[in-house]
Design brief:
This protein is mostly beta strands. It has no helices and 11 strands. A hairpin with a 6-residue loop joins β4 and β5. The protein is elongated and about 50 Å long.
Length: 120
């Protein structure tokens, strides 16, 4: 019903930048929050940044001032990551809280994940 396709990511040296994209498609009636999570090896999946339908944003403390989440229309979300540090290395997942047509409520949908590696 809702498909999320992520793009971007890769390997970069400390201090570099990367941009992640996540596009939602399918039979969607509405999308609420769009959120980026990350999961480092051996660790739990943590929220990185979120943006509401009205454009309000929130970030985890460790990325404030370095990462920017933005939204293009209703169905695409970006994560601009600047001044990357090795601790940012993780698999990044897009999460969308969406109301798919034919369902009765908002549900969470996940992208496939994309690796971000920060290393010299």
């Amino acid at each position: 019903q809702v498909q999320l396709v992520q793009s971007g990511g890769g390997s970069v040296q400390p201090g570099g930048s990367l941009r992640l994209s996540c596009a939602a498609s399918g039979s969607i009636f509405d999308i609420n929050n769009m959120t980026w999570y990350r999961q480092a090896p051996g660790k739990q999946r943590d929220l990185v940044a979120t943006i509401s339908a009205s454009g309000n944003t929130d970030y985890t403390d460790s990325v404030k001032g370095r990462f920017t989440i933005s939204r293009e229309g209703k169905k695409t979300v970006y994560l601009q990551m600047n001044s990357l540090i090795p601790e940012d290395t993780a698999v990044y997942y897009c999460n969308v809280n969406a109301w798919a047509r034919g369902t009765s409520r908002y549900q969470d949908y996940w992208g496939q994940g994309t690796q971000v590696t920060v290393s010299s």
